[in-house]
Amino acid sequence: MSNSSAASDRLSLLSAHLAVVAPSQLHRQQTNAAAAPTPVTTSLAGKVCIITGAGSVHGIGRASAWAFAQNGAVAIYITDFRVDHLESLAQEITAAYPGVKVIARRVDATSDEDVKGVIDDAIEKFGRLDVFFANAVWIDILLVVCVQTAGVATGAHIKDTDGQQFMESMRINGLSTFLAIKHAGAAMQITGKGGKEKTGGSIVATASVAGVRSGAGSLDYSASKAAVINMAQCGSTQYAKANIRVNAICPGLIETDMTKITFDYAKARGTAHKIGQLNPLARYGVASEVASVALFLASDASSYVNGQAWAVDGGLSASLPVAPGRFF
Ligand SMILES: NC(=O)c1ccc[n+]([C@@H]2O[C@H](COP(=O)([O-])OP(=O)(O)OC[C@H]3O[C@@H](n4cnc5c(N)ncnc54)[C@H](O)[C@@H]3O)[C@@H](O)[C@H]2O)c1
């Protein structure tokens, strides 16, 4: 199909849609209780979910596993390439929510084989995949050096970053997102099993405010997170008409294992109270505050949210770099 005929097809579809549902009708639909659409909730009832990077003790992945279980997921694969805390997490969640099947599994999020393997397992055991939360991260060890020497968690300077480190950031943070979108999107189109009648699903990837602007990470980390945001945008169009949504979350400064060194350093200096003070809420965030957004994006409550990058940063990325109330 030529570009011009594709464009004219889209235009005629759009005008047909507008002809069927005029804005005034839309308004009537919303205010007429009898015609109100089925309410959507943050419930994950009946949904099969996979989370990568769920293996750290204070991480966003772990907090999300709890949120997904609390909200009725039928099965949750908790995965990471480090497995020291995965089994105990599975046991704790199962004890609290016996109705949820929790499966701990070693998955390297950058391995085509591993990612496809865990998705195939979900299809084999449950017949469906509904949610994939691509949350694993690699962060340059030089961040640690930078924090300790300069006292700011902005990551390694470009002069201290070589091409190999740059590629490693892109490989882990970028490739893991690509594989998630590729394999999860394919699996979410499988129907006729596990009670799934129509294609659909939600892929959520953890990006960062570092992927939106400079100042929140090293150049390689920030660039890899910008790639994650772009893949959420492009991924949403890859699955057009299949009801598969792809969104990114952009956390600000969250207290997790990844940022532990920053928090420990500030505590040792007696400046812990200053962490996060540059955002309008003047505090840092905790993993459960990101998990609740992951839950929203995973659930049907966000059924019309697609291709977006949602900041969860206390307003950091919305504000200019001034201390609240001080202009000079
Ligand atoms: N904590 C923050 O302030 C912050 C800010 C912005 C974005 N993020 C993003 O949030 C996500 C979660 O990070 P977190 O803060 O919970 O950190 P975390 O260190 O607590 O968790 C990250 C997990 O990813 C795992 N991981 C790393 N490479 C992997 C791989 N190849 N395969 C599978 N697992 C792998 C680690 O083992 C770890 O358990 C990351 O994508 C991170 O970039 C965090």
Automatic annotation (TrEMBL):
Taxonomy, superkingdom: Eukaryota
UniProt similarity note: Belongs to the short-chain dehydrogenases/reductases (SDR) family.
Keywords: NADP, Oxidoreductase
InterPro entries in the record: NAD(P)-bd_dom_sf, Sc_DH/Rdtase_CS, SDR_fam
Organism of this sequence: Jimgerdemannia flammicorona
PROSITE patterns in the record: ADH_SHORT (PS00061)
Record bears the keyword ATP-binding: no
SUPFAM superfamilies associated with the record: NAD(P)-binding Rossmann-fold domains
Record protein name field: Uncharacterized protein
GO MF, any single term: oxidoreductase activity
CDD domains referenced in this protein's UniProt entry, alphabetically: SDR_c (cd05233)
